[in-house]
Inverse folding.
C-alpha cells in the first residue's frame, strides 16, 4: 500500500482534482469530512492530510511514501526526498517587494519573510547583507509599519501587494506543486510509484 501526504489548504482542492482526473476514485469524505487519514482500499492507497509545510517531514521520515508540496517549501528546507513530477498546480512565484521608491536602510537593512533560508540565500547572492526577520503570515504588514524595508513572499494574483500599496521589485523563483517521494520507498515500491507517476503525468495541465 502507498501512503500519500496531501497538503491541506489552498493546494488541496487542485491536488484532489488532479488525482480524480487521473481516475483515482477518491471518496466524498475526502472533501467533506475532518478525517486526517483516509484509506482508499480499491486503489491500495492511504492518504494523510497534513499542513503544507509538514508534508515534506512525513515523507522524509518515511511514514508517507509520497507527498505533494509547493516548490517554495522544497526550496526553503533541504530535505532528503526526491522530486518526481512537476504537477503544474497552485502556480505562484516568490518575490521581493517593498514600498514604492523606498530604499533599503543603509545601516541596518531588514527583510521580513516566512522563508528565511530562501531570503538569506537570495540577498547573499546579490552581495547584500541584510537582517532576516521571520514572520508566520501577513508578511505585507512588515514594510507598512516599519518592521522591515523589504519582504520576500509568495505572489499569486498580486492583489495583496496592490491593496497594501506595495510593489514587486524582484522575482526570485517560479513556484508550482511537486510530487515528492521518500528515497527508500522509491527503491522498494518503484513499480507502484512509476504507475502512479504515469497516471498523473498523463493528466497534468500543460504550462
Ligand atoms: N497565493 C498563494 N499564497 C500562498 N501560497 C500559495 C499561493 N498560491 C499557491 N500557493 C502554494 O500553496 C502553499 C501554501 O498553502 P496554504 O496557504 O494553504 O498553506 P500555509 O500558508 O502554509 O498554511 P497556513 O496559511 O494555514 O499557515 C504554498 O507552499 C505555495 O506552494
Ligand atoms: O498575490 P495574491 O493572490 O494576493 O496572494 C499572495 C498572498 O497570499 C499568501 O498569503 P495567505 O493568504 O496564505 O495568508 P498569510 O498572510 O496568512 O500567509 C501570500 O503570503 C501573500 O500574502
Amino acid at each position: 500500500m502507498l501512503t500519500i501526504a496531501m497538503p491541506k489548504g489552498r493546494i488541496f482542492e487542485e491536488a484532489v482534482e488532479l488525482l480524480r482526473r487521473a481516475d483515482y476514485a477518491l471518496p466524498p469524505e475526502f472533501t467533506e469530512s475532518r478525517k486526517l487519514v483516509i484509506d482508499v482500499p480499491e486503489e491500495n492507497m492511504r492518504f494523510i492530510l497534513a499542513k503544507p509545510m509538514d508534508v515534506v517531514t512525513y515523507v522524509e521520515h518515511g511514514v508517507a511514501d509520497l507527498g505533494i508540496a509547493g516548490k517554495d517549501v522544497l526550496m526553503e528546507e533541504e530535505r532528503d526526498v526526491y522530486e518526481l513530477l512537476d504537477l503544474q498546480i497552485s502556480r505562484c512565484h516568490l518575490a521581493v517587494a517593498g514600498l514604492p521608491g523606498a530604499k533599503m536602510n543603509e545601516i541596518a537593512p531588514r527583510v521580513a519573510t516566512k522563508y528565511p533560508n530562501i531570503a538569506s540565500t537570495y540577498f547573499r547572492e546579490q552581495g547584500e547583507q541584510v537582517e532576516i526577520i521571520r514572520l508566520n503570515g501577513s508578511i505585507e504588514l512588515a514594510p507598512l509599519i516599519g518592521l522591515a524595508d523589504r519582504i520576500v513572499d509568495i505572489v499569486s494574483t498580486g492583489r495583496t501587494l496592490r491593496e497594501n500599496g506595495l510593489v514587486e521589485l524582484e522575482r526570485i523563483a517560479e513556484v508550482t506543486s511537486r510530487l515528492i517521494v521518500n528515497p527508500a520507498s522509491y527503491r522498494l515500491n518503484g513499480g507502484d510509484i512509476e504507475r502512479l507517476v504515469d497516471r498523473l503525468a498523463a493528466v497534468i495541465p500543460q504550462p
About this structure: Residues 23 and 139 are 38 Å apart (CA to CA).
